[in-house]
Design brief:
The complex is a heterodimer of chains A (200) and B (57).
Chain A: H1 2-19, H2 25-28, H3 32-50, H4 52-61, H5 67-84, H6 92-99, H7 105-116, H8 118-146, H9 150-155, H10 164-171, H11 176-199
Helix pairs in contact in A: 1-8, 5-6, 5-11, 6-8, 6-11, 7-8, 7-11, 8-10
Chain B: H1 2-16, H2 19-55
Classes of the chains: A mainly alpha (200), B mainly alpha (57).
């Protein structure tokens, strides 16, 4: 939990510094989060390749590896469908479209804004950012109490990049390859499921 | 871990410099939060079974 608190304080510091315009515009335009992510991806790649368990688990996993992204998809749909009955302003199909972002907030929010309008687009943006942040914050707790698959599926599409470092730290680097696989499958499904639900 | 701190800081910078997110945060935030809660709980629920039956040694 201490690790999560330190992480959120960095996030809040970033928001405040940008909001109160402490940093010059040139730094804001430099897309530094992309560079930080590239460095992280390299470090995780090295750790994954070095671990001999990585290749063993991939051989053993085979078809059952598909159950991981499936768990993320079905679990998300059941969850948001139940919640939609509590929300008078968000319909079932719109809730399913927001959920089908699976944490991929940039793509899902743009798609939803274009098809359904800005209100649902911003809802998708916030919801999927929150999903990524919750994964970053609670992966240590989720891994401890719910097993090694739950942090990967909660991460959704982000489990292949932004949340991969923290996930692989807490579920072990031998599960990192499953995390990348699941995140990749979910990323591909985002435009398919989002447009499908909005077309209903 | 230092790299994770930096990434979160820069994501915060992205969010904080986006006027649309900041101004709509209270209005739509609650819907988004509740939906995400449902998605996360549902996902954890299914994943516990997937882990138990397919991945636990």
């Amino acid at each position: 939990m201490k690790g999560s608190l330190i992480i959120i304080s960095f996030f809040v510091a970033g928001i405040l510094i940008a909001y109160f315009k402490v940093l010059p515009q040139s730094i804001l335009n430099a897309d530094l989060s992309t560079y930080a992510l590239v460095i992280l991806m390299f470090l995780v790649g090295v750790a994954t390749g070095i671990n001999p368990k990585t290749w063993q688990i991939l051989k053993k996993a085979k078809f059952k590896i598909l159950t991981v992204p499936l768990a993320a998809i079905i679990g998300t749909w059941i969850g948001v469908a139940l919640i939609s009955f509590l929300l008078p302003t968000v319909s079932l199909k719109n809730s399913l479209a927001v959920g089908s972002g699976f944490g991929y907030y940039s793509l899902s929010s743009i798609l939803i804004s274009k098809i359904e309008g800005d209100v649902l687009g911003v809802t998708a943006l916030l919801s999927n950012i929150i999903r990524e942040i919750l994964t970053l914050l609670f992966t240590p707790l989720i891994a401890k109490y719910f097993g090694k698959i739950a942090p990967i599926t909660v991460g959704g599409a982000t489990s292949m990049d932004t949340t991969l470092p923290i996930i692989s730290k807490y579920v072990g680097s031998e599960f990192a390859i499953i995390s990348i696989f699941s995140g990749t499958v979910l990323t591909i499904t985002v435009p398919i499921f989002v447009t499908f639900f909005l077309s209903l | 871990m230092v790299a994770i701190f930096l990434l979160l800081f820069f994501i915060g910078v992205d969010v904080g410099s986006d006027e649309t997110i900041i101004s709509n945060l209270p209005k739509i935030g609650l819907n988004a939060l509740v939906l995400t809660f449902g998605a996360v709980v549902g996902t954890i629920f299914i994943s516990v079974f997937v882990y138990k039956y397919f991945f636990k040694d």
